[in-house]
Every structure is written in structure tokens, then in C-alpha cells.
């Protein structure tokens, strides 16, 4: 047994002091091929300093060996010494057998510096030179996966599988394919690969994407099972709770949906979207007090979110809390560009409180957006009736009857005003 082999065995068994001694003897006694192999394995185990020492020793002996320079550049990048890495890489010519390897290392370097255009350029050059090289296929597919270009990642992952690589660099390729297909909206293909993920690689992200894919495909019961298993496996995975609540909501299992949402709020108490989901579930249960509590909290967490503000406003209107609704929307009206829904909701509150001047202004502002909306026109007609504006009333009645000619009540009302 070589000293290198002895060191690796000692590392595996936790004999660190003995491993240090064997490493020293390996540097002195083992042949160059054995040392090169040891350097590769030590790098994979995270012993960067020891791996670097071996490569430097070998480079001193073989100064023209570009593969060693590429490996030293990789170690330098891991240590945050990018200038040193570039110095090694600049010595590797395009004619070198190690040039493709150097391109992959350079891509890694530029990715750490968030120079993604240069990263892609290096990877595409490597792919042009070695389109079937597994390390190149994997590096380029992982880059596309990282930047969200899933349609470009998919064929590269498939090429790896065709070459027999179900995993590469401790990454499950089926999982990557499943996630990529899902992010591209191709859920049937996604589920086929996600179901093949090796149990060793069943991460929380994989489980979550599997559940979401099942939901998209209408496999609600399967999604509930998957998402509940995810929570049992990782109860701090916050995204699982709204997904599970939504799944129960689809099944009209409102109590279970509310329980899932409330458990999620215990994990992520600042998620305004989860509060709005909980409010929706509470409304199905007829618990309007709880609904209001959740919507109020959501609005407090995200006061600039107009969608949430309008959801809360609609709730206040349903509860006939007209002054509260005005207090909610008036600051929004003053701080933002005119929003027709804000104006309509304000108009309803002003009308209910018989503040006709304010109601009229709000209705007039909202009218261009809702002039073909029968519900809006009914309320506008009610306003004109209460405020005694006969001519405007007739105009809106005519518009309404043209939209809804089957509403005999409004047809008769229009006739009565015409005959008067």
C-alpha cells in the first residue's frame, strides 16, 4: 500500500494525525502518478491546502503540464485568489490538451465574479471544442439552470443521461431535468423525471417541486400527500404551507386548509400573501372576523401592495364598515396615480354615508374604466337617483339597458323616467 492510499484510509477512519504523517511520507516516497491521483482525491474531499502542495511539487517537476496549472487555478478560485487563478490560466494555450479544462475553470472564475456573459462565452467555447465531453455538458447545463434558461439546459441534461450519467458531481440529473421541465411549464415531462429522483437526492426543493407539479396537473390528492411528507421531513420549509393550504382549498377541505395556513404563519409570520390566503379560507368557513384580522395584518405588512389593500377594502365594504374603508383608501388615493377600483370602492362608501359630492367625484373618476360594467352602472344609477340628477340618471339607465336588456326592473325604471 502506498503512503497516499494509507493517508486516504486514515482520513476515512478519522485518524487525522496519522494521516498528516502519511501525507508527509507520500510527498517524499510516492511516485508522481500516485501523487497526482492523491491531489485529485484530496481536492474532492476539501483538503485544498494539501492538494495544492502536491500540485506545486508536480508543477516544479513538470513546468509544461497544463492540467496541473488548471487544477491550481481551480484551487485558487476556491480560496478567493482570482488573480492568481488567472495567472495560471493565461499560461494555457488553445492548442493545449488542457485548454477545454481551463475554459471550464475560467467559467467558474467569472461566475464567482457575476460576469455571466463571459461565463457563458467560456462554456460555449468549451462546448464547441468538446460537445460530447460530460464535464462540459454538465457545466453548461448547470449554468443555464442557474440563470433560469431551462429550455437550453434540458437537451444538455438529456445528453448526459444518454451517455449513462444519471448523476454527475453529486447532482441527480433526473432531478435537474424534472425541475427544468417544471420551470418551463412542461409538467407532464417534469413529473416523469421527478418521480425518478434517487431517494438520496430527495431534497426539500425536489419534494416541493414534485408537489407543485402534481397540483398543476390536477393530481390534488397526490400533491397533498407529497407536500405533507415534505413538511414532515422539513417543517421549516415555508413555501410548503401555502401550497398545501391551496391544495386543500381545491378539495374544499377548508378546516385542513386553514390549519395548514396557520401552521405556515407559525413558520413565516411576515408573509403577507399567506395572510391573504388564510383570509380567503376563513371566508369559506364564514369566519369573517378572522378574515378581517388576516387582511388587516397583510395590509400592515405590505401597505404599498395595492392588491392587498383592495382585498381589504372589499372586505370592509361587505361588512358595511364604510368609514373604515374611506380611512383605508383615502391615503392611497392621495399618494398614487388614480386607480379606478380605488375610486369605485370609495364611491360606494361615500354613497352609503350619503356624502354625495365625494361619491359623485369618485364615480366620475372611475366611470371611464367601468362604463361597460353592469354592476358599476347599477350603483351609479343608484347614486343619481339619490342625488336627484335626472338627466344623468336617464343616460346611465339607457347605457345599462343596452348592456342588460333582460333586466326588466331597470327597463321599467327607464320607461317611467321617459314618461314622466
TrEMBL record:
It comes from Limosilactobacillus coleohominis 101-4-CHN. Gene3D superfamilies: Tetratricopeptide repeat domain. PROSITE patterns: TPR. GO terms for biological process: transcription by RNA polymerase III. TPR repeats lie at residues 238-271, 340-373. It comes from the Bacteria. InterPro entries: Tfc4/TFIIIC-102/Sfc4, TPR-like_helical_dom_sf, TPR_rpt. It holds the Pfam family TPR_16. Signal peptide: none annotated. The lineage of its organism: Bacteria, Bacillati, Bacillota, Bacilli, Lactobacillales. This is Tetratricopeptide repeat protein. Keywords: TPR repeat. GO terms for cellular component: transcription factor TFIIIC complex.
Amino acid at each position: 500500500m502506498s503512503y497516499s492510499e494509507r493517508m486516504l484510509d486514515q482520513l476515512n477512519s478519522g485518524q487525522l494525525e496519522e494521516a498528516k504523517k502519511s501525507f508527509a511520507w507520500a510527498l517524499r516516497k510516492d511516485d508522481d502518478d500516485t501523487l497526482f491521483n492523491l491531489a485529485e482525491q484530496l481536492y474532492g474531499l476539501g483538503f485544498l491546502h494539501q492538494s495544492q502542495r502536491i500540485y506545486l511539487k508536480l508543477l516544479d517537476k513538470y513546468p509544461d503540464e497544463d492540467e496541473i496549472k488548471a487544477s491550481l487555478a481551480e484551487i485558487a478560485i476556491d480560496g478567493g485568489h482570482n488573480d492568481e487563478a488567472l495567472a495560471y490560466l493565461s499560461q494555457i494555450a488553445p492548442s493545449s490538451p488542457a485548454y477545454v479544462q481551463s475554459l471550464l475553470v475560467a467559467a467558474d472564475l467569472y461566475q464567482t465574479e457575476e460576469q455571466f456573459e463571459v461565463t457563458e462565452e467560456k462554456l460555449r467555447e468549451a462546448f464547441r471544442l468538446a460537445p460530447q465531453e460530460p464535464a462540459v455538458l454538465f457545466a453548461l447545463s448547470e449554468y443555464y439552470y442557474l440563470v433560469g434558461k431551462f429550455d437550453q439546459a434540458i437537451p444538455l441534461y438529456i445528453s448526459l443521461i444518454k451517455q449513462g450519467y444519471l448523476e454527475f458531481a453529486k447532482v441527480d440529473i433526473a432531478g435537474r431535468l424534472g425541475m427544468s421541465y417544471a420551470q418551463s411549464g412542461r409538467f407532464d415531462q417534469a413529473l416523469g423525471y421527478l418521480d425518478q429522483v434517487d431517494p438520496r437526492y430527495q431534497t426539500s426543493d425536489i419534494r416541493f417541486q414534485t408537489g407543485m407539479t402534481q397540483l398543476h396537473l390536477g393530481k390534488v390528492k397526490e400533491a397533498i400527500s407529497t407536500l405533507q411528507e415534505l413538511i414532515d421531513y422539513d417543517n421549516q420549509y415555508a413555501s410548503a404551507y401555502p401550497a398545501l393550504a391551496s391544495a386543500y382549498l381545491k378539495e374544499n377541505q377548508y378546516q385542513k386548509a386553514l390549519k395548514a395556513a396557520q401552521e405556515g404563519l407559525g413558520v413565516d409570520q411576515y408573509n403577507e400573501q399567506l395572510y391573504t390566503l388564510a383570509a380567503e379560507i376563513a371566508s369559506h368557513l364564514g369566519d369573517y372576523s378572522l378574515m378581517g384580522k388576516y387582511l388587516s395584518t397583510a395590509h400592515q405588512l405590505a401597505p404599498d401592495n395595492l392588491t392587498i389593500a383592495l382585498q381589504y377594502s372589499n372586505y370592509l365594504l361587505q361588512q358595511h364598515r364604510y368609514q373604515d374603508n374611506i380611512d383605508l383608501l383615502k391615503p392611497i388615493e392621495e399618494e398614487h396615480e388614480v386607480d379606478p377600483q380605488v375610486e369605485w370602492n370609495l364611491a360606494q362608501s361615500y354613497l352609503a354615508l350619503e356624502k354625495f359630492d365625494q361619491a359623485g367625484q369618485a364615480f366620475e373618476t372611475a366611470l371611464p374604466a367601468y362604463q361597460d360594467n353592469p354592476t358599476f352602472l347599477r350603483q351609479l344609477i343608484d347614486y343619481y337617483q339619490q342625488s336627484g340628477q335626472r338627466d344623468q340618471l336617464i343616460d346611465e339607465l339607457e347605457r345599462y339597458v343596452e348592456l342588460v336588456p333582460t333586466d326588466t326592473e331597470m327597463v321599467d325604471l327607464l320607461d317611467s323616467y321617459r314618461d314622466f
